[in-house]
Each structure stands twice: as C-alpha cells, then as structure tokens.
Amino acid sequence: MSPAPHPRPTLSQDAARRIWLGAQCLDRVAPFGAGPAATPAAVAQLGYVQIDTIHVVERCHHHILWTRIPAYERADLHHAQSVDKTVFEYWTHALAFVPTSDIGFFLPAMKRHRAAPAKWFGSVSKADKRKVLDLIRENGPLTIRDIDDDVLVDKDHAWASRKPSKRALQLAFYNGDLVVSARAGMLKTYELTDRHFGWEKRPRPATARQVLDYRIDRALRSQGVASLDSICHLQPSLKPAIRPLLDARVKRRQLVELRIEGAGDAPHWALPETLDTVPEPESTLVHILSPFDPLVIQRKRLAQFFGYAHRFEAYVPREKRVLGYFALPVLVGDRIVAALDLKTDRAAGKVLIQKWNWVGDGSSADKPAIEEALQRFERFQLAR
What we know:
Blueprint (H helix, E strand, L loop, with lengths): L9 E2 L1 H11 L14 H9 L2 E2 L9 H9 L5 H10 L3 E5 L3 E5 L7 H9 L10 H14 L24 H12 L2 E7 L2 E6 H5 L10 H16 L2 E2 H4 L7 H13 L4 E5 L7 E3 L15 E3 L10 H8 L20 E6 L2 E11 L4 E9 L8 H16 L2
Parallel strand pairs: 1-8
Antiparallel strand pairs: 2-4, 3-4, 5-6, 7-9, 8-9, 10-11, 11-12, 12-13
Helix pairs in contact: 1-9, 5-7, 6-7
C-alpha cells in the first residue's frame, strides 16, 4: 500500500488576509517612500497596474498607485514610462503598466500575435500598417490625432474609430512593433519599440517554461498566498501547465501547499518564509480602493479572504444596481467595511458621495476615519 498523503496545513482566513495585504503593501503607510522612484518600485511589487477608460473618479492606474504612495504625483508615472522607461504598457489580464525588466516574458506573446492576430484586427490591411510604421519611422512618435489623411470608415463597434489608422496602430502595438511611449489620459503616443528603448538588439524572449515560472513568481510576490485561480486569472487554460510546476516546487520544499479556512478544499501555495510571520496591519489605516485594484479585481478571491462580494455595476442597468454605478470598497485595517459610490465633480471642485453602503461589520464607528480618508482622496482627485 502506498502511504497516505500528508494532510495540507490549514491557514486561518485572518492570517491569509493579512499576508495578502502585506504582499499588496496595503498594511503600512508609504511602503515605497516618495518621489519618482516610488512608482516603478510599486509596479514591480504588484507585477502590473491595470489601465481602464472609466473616468468617474481618477483613472484607475493613478488611483492604484496613489493608494500605495501617498505622495504620488501623476508626473511620476509619466517619468517612469517616458523618461526612465522603467515601465511599459502591455496586456496582462487587461491592459496594464508592467515593469520593463519583465519585457522578455511578454515578447513571446507579441510574436504569437504577429503570427496570428486577433479577429478584431482582420480589417487592417498591410497598407494601413505600413503607413503608420512609415510615418513614425520618418517623423517620430505620434498619436492618432496626428493622422489626418485617413479615408474614414463606418464604425463596426461602439469602441472602434472611424480612422483605419487607429486599429493599425493597435495591431502594431500588440505585435510589439510599436510601444506606447507616453499617455495623456487615454490618448496614447506611439513610438517604434526598438527606438523607444534604445535597443540595438532586442532582449531574448523567455521560453514557455520561463513564462509559466514568471507567472507563479509574480503571484507569490504580489499575493503572498496564491491559488491556481489567482495565478491564472482570466487564463484558466494555463492551469494544466502551472499545476505540475507548483507540485515540483512543493516536492523540493520551495513551496508549502495549504488550504485556507473558509475557502473550501482548493489548494493554495506560499513560500515557507511567508508563513513564518503573519503581518499585523495598522488598524487605523484607511484605503479607498479602486474597483480595478489588484486586491479587488479577483472577485472570488476577495470574497474568500474578506467575506465581501464586490459588485461592479457600471454596466448594470440603473434599476438593478445595489452598490451604485462606480462603488469603491473601503478598507479599514484588514476589514472591508463600506462601498462608496463616488463621482468627482471637477467643475465644482469636490468629490460627490452618490451612495454610502455599509458592508461586513462596518458601522458608524468607522465613519470619522473614512471621512478623513475621503478628504485626502478629494485632494488627490483635484490636484493638478
């Protein structure tokens, strides 16, 4: 008879939650310090910072960084992207800022896209692509607004442009021929990738195995305790390839496999040293989180660790909304206690509270600390 498998140790929900908060750097004040260097440091720890078009409050990439860098200025991200070039934009589970040091792990995806573009780009002709590349090669970086000689076409999607050059620019971006060298709101400036980074020779693309190991390492660093779902967020097809690598690390005693109290029997993994000391968050620390924050975006994981099921209702009919159009979870210490539907009225110079929802064990006792955090949030929103 083969020996019975060792039972997986169980980690309490409280401990798992605090480890995750520590990995996300939400359990202490100014973990990255201040100044331009704080921004690439934060992006490196998180692995990516999501970009989204919604502008009800400050765009999520600025919001996510400000949450961890109280002295954050929008110019710091511009500096990292366009001057120091320590971050770049590409697709993770969504469009995101990623450390430039990780670009080798994204080059294989660019190569695959070049060989087999997404159906969205089927309308891009070779002439369209050649046109935008030649314009940038000859005249330097440009935005879609700089191209004024397109023959306009009918839109085939609500998010599409009537300019064929826009989709050609996007295709060249996903192929890795172009990089977003600067961003003003959602207006992107494109540049030749090799010229932007000053490459005489491109970095070597990571192997398929190295990309999988990278995904595991990124999740362990930014999540503390990771599962197959969290490692393969929105890419479940990777699970069969990832699981044996996790098992091999457990066998080599590089990882501990465990279960989390209240999360069913789904296995989770952590580095042994991660489990040695469970962080104690500052109980009075308040964060108003973006719905695209890495702590919030994986809804199932959020519910397992915090007992709070967030609803993103921007695309839900008004009559069916519960929390509101753009509700932001509020973290106090290691508890999510409220979800505030906020809107920044830039003309009036104030942040409007559309709806205040108490959740979990949140109560009026938390309100003074949240109101103080709202004042800081308003000052950040309106700063120029």
